[in-house]
């Protein structure tokens, strides 16, 4: 497949590296976005998470404004806002404000997961018994608040009303694929941590897609991990930061991102190694030629319209280099 036929974007979780302040982490996110714009990436999304000492993107709409304000043309958005954590009206107002300030550059990706643990989900005011029914209703509310027709109603999103803000459905299971297809909205899958059902979800979405006025054709985005370096050996070494993060995830041991290590076998058990590698089975790790071969194989199995790259690398300069190597490979 011609790799230039699809789009390439970045998903940033604002990972906090061990020894870094949150302030420095957020400055690094902006620096990455500035470089991404220069390298020709399509969009830069930030993900909502809460109560995590290794992720600084909890106030997602605020960060979207920070990144959009520090760049010139790259699209910026949420990947995503976890809609049941919020009032639909407030989200419409927030993203309406962002689109007003940065016209034609704002995306609204939405999901239904809490982005945290059960205790924190309760602190966010979520009601797990109504979320499955509430989520589609909230999407409909958002679409209504953004519509010009809503100007005659008693509750209006100001700013937001009449603005063209694309809504993307995010998911990590086949449930979200059915919903995105039914609503005729673009669909992004979290293959960077839940790749098991990604191909199945995309097939469901495409086969059952109902064209909408704004999106007459299905559109799929796959978020995948990429660790690129000048050599395979160096990429494998840098990727141990990613492996450690997922090892800590399955151990429920939250901590900032850790430096790379020489030997992962000294840290995980064989069962843990198998679990982590399964969760990262769609990851692209290696030098340029290795990454290209893996990407071609991935696209042959899972045809998509856009890849959203996640590079969880400890050192900021190495992370920048990974994104640059990957984009240069596509562009040559």
Automatic annotation (TrEMBL):
Domain Luciferase-like: 21-244
Superkingdom field: Bacteria
Family annotation (Pfam families): Bac_luciferase
GO molecular function: oxidoreductase activity, acting on paired donors, with incorporation or reduction of molecular oxygen
Keywords from the named record: Oxidoreductase
Family: To bacterial alkanal monooxygenase alpha and beta chains.
Protein name: Luciferase-like monooxygenase
């Amino acid at each position: 497949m011609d790799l230039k036929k699809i789009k390439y974007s970045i998903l940033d979780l604002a990972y906090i590296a061990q020894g870094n302040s949150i302030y420095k982490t957020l400055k690094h996110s902006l620096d990455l976005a500035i470089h991404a714009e220069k390298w020709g990436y399509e969009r830069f999304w930030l993900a909502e998470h809460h109560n995590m000492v290794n992720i600084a993107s909890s106030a997602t709409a605020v960060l979207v404004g920070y990144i959009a304000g520090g760049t010139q043309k790259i699209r910026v958005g949420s990947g995503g806002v976890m809609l049941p954590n919020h009032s639909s009206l407030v989200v419409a107002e927030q993203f309406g404000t962002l689109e007003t300030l940065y016209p034609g550059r704002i995306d609204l990706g939405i999901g239904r997961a809490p982005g945290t643990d059960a205790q924190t989900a309760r602190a966010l005011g979520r009601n797990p018994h109504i979320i499955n029914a509430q989520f589609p209703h909230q999407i409909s509310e958002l679409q209504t608040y953004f519509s010009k027709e809503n100007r005659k109603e008693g509750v209006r999103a100001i700013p937001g009303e009449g603005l063209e803000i694309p809504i993307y459905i995010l998911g990590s299971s086949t449930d979200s694929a059915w919903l995105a297809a039914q609503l005729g909205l673009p669909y992004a899958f979290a293959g960077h941590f839940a790749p098991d059902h990604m191909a199945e979800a995309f097939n469901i979405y495409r086969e059952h897609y109902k064209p909408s006025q704004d999106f007459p054709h299905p559109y799929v985005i796959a978020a995948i991990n990429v660790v690129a370096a000048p050599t395979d050996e160096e990429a494998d070494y840098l990727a141990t930061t990613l492996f450690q993060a997922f090892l800590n995830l399955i151990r429920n041991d939250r901590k900032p991102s850790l430096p790379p290590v020489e030997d992962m076998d000294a840290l995980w058990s064989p069962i843990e190694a198998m679990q982590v590698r399964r969760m990262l089975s769609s990851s692209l790790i290696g030098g340029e030629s290795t990454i290209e071969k893996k990407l071609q194989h991935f696209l042959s199995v899972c045809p998509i319209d856009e890849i959203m790259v996640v590079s969880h690398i400890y050192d900021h300069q190495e992370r920048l280099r990974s994104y640059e190597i990957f984009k240069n490979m596509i562009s040559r």
